[in-house]
Amino acid sequence: MVAAQEPPVLTFWERNPPFAALAAAKLSGANIAAKPDPKATKDTVATLTFATGEQLVGLPLILRYAARAGDRPSTLFPSSPLLATQVDYLVDYCIASVVSGSSLEGVLTALNEYLAFRSYLVGYATSLADVALWGQLQASPLWKKHQSSGKLPHLTRWWEHLATHPECSAAVEELLAMDSKKIKAAASAAAVANACGQVGEATASKGAGESGSFDIQLPGAEMGKVVTRFPPEPSGYLHIGHAKAALLNQHFADMYQ
Asked: Vertex 176, ends 175 and 177: CA angle to 5°?
């Protein structure tokens, strides 16, 4: 029996998840394990490490491997040499150019115009170029602002179509679930909710034991043999004691008839 081969591990800075790489792997059926590097910084480059110790460094290389390593039929790389070359070019372009910065607006405007009469970046099906661009936009904190501006209708239409791919949404969900800050925040919120629940239960229990009650009895009193006196008349102002006496008189009169 042949032992199962360990999948290569994709490490990255958790604040810059490799959405495109994981989505491409899911689209092609490639087996890749994603794991954020706790020591990574903003300068850390995504790296795919194999059991042999060999590595692929950088998203362009990792994307190409992910597209080719799976056993599922896909359109990530067209069979046409010309279209495949265009895909290669656009993968490199998107990874290098669609990044946060002063030039991002110009790049997005150019892509919007390019997609005016196209459903996909290359050909007539989702290619690795589409996945690369989608991943860069998904990771960009500025994309939502540009998307909601209304100035990029063609790019927004294209984006919304790509986002409906189950593999893309699954990649987003899986990678965001690895965010340590969100995990800690969720754990903290759960702890606070649990503590509040315990305090609430204790308070309710204590309150139930200490709540006011009219269940007051006179030790040794017999039915029909209790005489109540008139409460003292208020002189000038009605004191709280006067009201209390009147209520107690009425209570015992009703209880002992």
From this structure: 90
pLDDT at site 187: 46
Contact predicate 86/43, CB 8 Å = no
Cβ-contact 78, 87 below 8 angstroms: yes
Q: According to CATH, what is the number of the domain 9-180?
A: 1.20.1050.130
What are the extents of the domains in the chain? 9-180, 215-257
Give the per-residue SS3 of 129-159: HHHHHHHHHHHCCCHHHHHCCCCCHHHHHHH
Which residue reads 């009425």 in tokens? Answer: 250
CA 125/CA 84 separation, integer angstroms: 12
Structure tokens at 127: 């290619």
Provide the token pair at 193.
Answer: 């909710």
In angstroms, the first-to-last Cα distance of the chain is: 93
pLDDT for 250 equals 73
**Amino acid in position 150:** G
pTM: 0.70
Q: Beginning with the edge strand found earlier in the chain, give each strand of the sheet holding 33-36 in spatial order.
A: 33-36, 9-12, 47-49, 55-57
DSSP-assigned letter for residue 34 = E
Q: Are 36 and 11 in contact (CB under 8 A)?
A: yes
Tens digits of per-residue pLDDT, 149-169?
999 999 999 999 999 999 999
* Sequence-distant (≥ 6) Cβ neighbours of residue 5 within 8 angstroms: 51
CB 244 within 8 A of CB 216: no
